[in-house]
Queue: 2 jobs
Job 1
Amino acid sequence: MNTKSILALVALSLVSVMGVYVLVNPSYQKSIQAKYFYEIGNYKEALSLAKESFSMDVYNRMASTVMAQSVTALKYVSYIEMGKKYMAEINLIATHENITDADKAKIRIMCEIMNTEYVKLAPSVITDESLVKETAEYNQKFEKLLEKVTR
């Protein structure tokens, strides 16, 4: 056997040992489960599992990453839920025959809250693109509404 073959065999053995370690280590098993739940959009479960995994092994970078991703995704989900709630309230106000100054002020405040909250969101490359897109759409709607109400 030549040196290259021995080196390749040693490298393959190390990779195999690392793979087995990841598969049998409970911390990594939980982090793999957390990653799965993150990928299917169950961010609360992903965060819970990632925290549990991280508490077992603070050097588990996969758990740390999934935890950070889940926290960010939950902020986006919260923004979207708040946007839906405010839009429903605004649509209810819009059905009134006369929109009072108090109603306009209420709409303006809701729009300002949503715009302020949007600025606080920190998009990253790893954030689910559909969440980023949906929050941007809500932000645009609230910006347009604010523009109409403040005229």
Note: The chain has a mean pLDDT of 89.
Job 2
Amino acid sequence: MDILKYRYDAENLKVALKCRYLHICPYGFMNNSGNYTAREIVACVRKGDFDCLPQNLSAAARISLDTIKDSESARECDIMIEKAALLDAICESELMSRLRAQEDVPSYNIAK
């Protein structure tokens, strides 16, 4: 996994969730620059199965799928997904791995 591509995965996830709610085709709004193709993200959203995504992004997607109902909750879901992608990138970065090995640094999880 390329942690620098998590932002594209998050963008595609946000698009897929909103388009599912609006009942429109998401592919015109998505890109294939992430770790997952647009089709893979859409399949995750359709099935409601986000286990293939990184831990925090997966948790944020599950919560968002249940809460995205209007423009207010959509904005909150966007922020939660963006934070989750950033947390996953930080947690999986080489620097964080080194810090955990040297100190007792807790792992962070969006679902906590």
Note: The CA atoms of residues 17 and 72 lie 14 Å apart.
